[in-house]
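quick one, 65 residues, struct below
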Amino acid sequence: MSEESLLTTAEVSEILRKPVGTLRQWRHRNYGPQGFRLGGTVVYRRGAVDEWVRECEAAESRTAC
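---
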C-alpha cells in the first residue's frame, strides 16, 4: 500500500488496534494521525498514519502518544 493510499476510519482503527470511537475522539481533540473529510467521509493518508506511529516511537515520554 502506498503512502498516498487513503484509509477509512475503520481501516485505521484496525491498523492501530484502537476502537473507531477512540479515533473519532482523537480527531475531535486534534490528536492522532491527521485525517480530513473527502465527500463527507473522514479519510487518512497511509503516510500520515505511519508518520504518527514513528513520532510516537521516537517520543521520549510514553505519555506523548
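The mean pLDDT is 91.
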